[in-house]
Structures
1.
Amino acid sequence: MHAITIEQPGGPEALLWAEVPDPTPGPGEVVVEVTAAGVNRADLMQRQGHYPPPAGVPPYPGMECSGVITEVGPGVTGHHVGERVCALLAGGGYAERVAVPEGQLLPIPQGMSLREAAALPEVACTVWSNVVDIARLRQGDSLLVHGGGGGIGTFAIQLGKALGATVIVTAREPKHAQLLALGADLAIDYTSTDFVAATRDFTEGRGATVILDIVGAKYLDRNVAALAPDGRIAIIGMQGGRRGELDLGALMSKRGSVSATTLRARPVADKARIVRGVRERVWPLVDAGTIRPIIDRAIPMRDAAAAHRLMESSDHIGKILLLP
């Protein structure tokens, strides 16, 4: 088969479409023939040499895909050859085929194409596990989402609204109309407006109950300032750096908490637990059309470098897909 390989870390030009060995399903795994794969910020970090795949995972980027099962490994129950699925991956999605633990498979939502479904697994699992499972977002809460125009952001807007929360997003002004149409209650241009003041003004001085942050160190102190009493900050990215100073006094005065997670390195059993939660709690909303994938464009997989350049520019809204 063919896959995107990285011989040496570097810029987008480091992504090479090359012939590689076919995957073989191990115990509890299936092989999926890839219809489409989603592009994520973690893929850019892997290309740059900053986020290597876990041991035993294919070296090719790609943490979600959709496709058709072509092989079933020993011990697999409940899945069969020819089944249409989408999948959460630890890596290997930028390829024509990939082996997947059966606990990381999700059905194709009702009325959705196989291609569209590739835009869902990583964002659904990331948002649900951090915003709902860890940060306990509930009806009546206020959710502040940084990076509202990306795949994570556009999904978080929809899930937050479906759960009855008020949703505030930060994004550049040209994206605001689309994000408000998705359900955001307030869009803040982070390049020209203080999101702390804007959030507090919009919530009548209370602040955000839950903050989903892709930026990291650069926003740490301001996130605490924007937090409501008993609020929760969920950090899932480090685009603004990995080392920051936390004012514990300010956090304690709000009885706040900070969590920081990655999804890729979690044990297989933990990923299966998250996938089950998504299937039980989120997939019915997707089946009903309450949540839908927001796809900016699909690009041939051999041109993955173009997809990475687009993501680095942040000029997209929603997900970028790759097609083998």
Note: The mean pLDDT is 97.
2.
Amino acid sequence: MSRTTFYRKIKSLSSLSPKELVDITRLKKAARLIAENDHSFAEISRMVGYSSQSLFSRNFQKYFKLSPMEYQNSL
């Protein structure tokens, strides 16, 4: 399957780009890990595949409208 075909299929099924779909999946897993409260934010960001904790925090806040710390405090 070509890259273009893959992109079109993912876009038609989910109305998201493949990158957005992967990011949302990572962030949902991070939210579950934050709820467990067993790991630090740096560990969680590495566990879900972010090499930079600041990028993780920025994306988390963009998706959930809360910083990871605010999310943890709201539980």
Note: The chain is about 75% helix and 0% strand.
3.
Amino acid sequence: MSRAAFATLLLIALVMGANHVAARVAFDHGADVATAVVFRSGLTALVVAALLWPQRRQIRIGARHRWALPAIGALIAVQSLCLYSAVARLPVALALLAFNTHPLSTAMWARLVYGQHAERRLWLAMPVMLAGLALALDVAGAASGLGAAAQWSRIGAGVAFALAASAAFGLALVLTQHEAGTLDGRLRTAATMAQVALLALLGVAWNGGFQLPTAAAGWWGLAALTLLYGSGFTLMFTVLPRLGVVGNSAIMNAEPVFALALA
């Protein structure tokens, strides 16, 4: 990997970490998860589609792309709703630590779906990553003094949402590389974000309508998460498929560190 590629992945981690800090600000001031996902995804889709519009005649979508794009969109919708649900229930850095098991999910899906073997260094890193996650989450409840049962009653739902987001995101990355890697990254972003926004709108309707921020800080958080997520997601879905998602997505594990510092 070149230095520029490595620096770009670190930049993505920084931007995505900042996005989740902004999301927590929005949630703390009245916004709910579905509303945040609709704003973030819908505006990103509109902006990227506007950038693509002058080149629309040059875009070609193959047969594989016609089923892959809806599948990726559905997976990112699940990932978005689950991850923001985790951020709403846990400290941002802890939610992101649990979510950033996605390199393991990516390796698992690549092996199951395409028979692709992960590099030996990733397998060696897996137990270290899981041990670190167990320590950070205090799974035995020793640091908090609550005991395992009470600790899990406090963090269990948030951790479950974060791990579900990890599994969905890992599969989305694998499908992007193998089934939609030849598409323009901006087209993938626009199509995916449009689908996520539509699915999130169903969630908004189910919850009885939009739950908007009740203070200026919440609106700033909502605006910031929209800008940061749209930029980071477009970068990520352009760069990672070219580099290979199995070996290189682990670099974005710096995201919780950035989020902790920013928070």
Note: Residues 148-179 form the longest helix (32 residues).
